[in-house]
Here is the input.
Amino acid sequence: MLEYPNIDPVIVSIGPLKIQWYGMAYIGGIIGGAMFGYKRLCKGMGLSMDQFINLVYAIVVGILLGGRLGYVIFYDWGYYWSNPASILAIWQGGMSYHGGAIGAMLGCIIFSYQNKVRVWGILDILGISSTIGIFFGRLANFINGELYGRVTTHPWGMIFPGGGPEPRHPSQLYEAGLEGLLLFGILYTCMTRCQLKEGQLFGLYMAGYGSLRFLIEFVREPDAHLGPILGPLTMGQLLCLIMITAGITLYQYQTQKKAPS
Here is the structure.
């Protein structure tokens, strides 16, 4: 069994202000994704700096709104239906990656329509850039001791605060490594070495993330108030199946799509 490091979730306190690792993970993911996408969007697609800043803003708003509404709808609809004011209490926690991804995608679509730029090219960069945010976000989940895995007898199991006396899978680290680092490496290789049409990389991102998350969910502790939804499958796995299907469909559609003459 490995010892859980038990890092303080608060980096520093300045009076009543507390700077937490989770908030820094969001900032790090946004900055990292923006730095990765800057050259490819501004020089590759001809976006001006003002347009790029507006795009980042649209993505951030989409992540926050979509992530929160996704959690409300997918994971705890009954509670928030009875307590609608709590929807605004984001400081109490409750964000959905799938909801955030949908929100970010809608932000990109709206931006592309308003600025008359190619939406698939932007979504391609959104997909690969999001893996940077996943990496930082899951590390923050690990530091917070949340979203841990199921009970395990493997030697790398850890006893998490609030997770009971038994060792559990450090599933946050699995996600950081697989959905973050590995998926970034795969998508970057495809982007630089394969001749993909616009939209195909985003399709690979959806199918890739969905597949990896689907598998990790088998060792991740389900939400206590939900548990399995359909047989042994969790809500996260059902959403991943939709994501995988959409990704494969998009990839095939873009493959068969003829280039404009």
User: Anything to note?
Assistant: The helical segments are 21-43, 49-75, 77-82, 97-115, 119-144, 171-193, 200-216, 235-256. The longest helix spans residues 49-75.
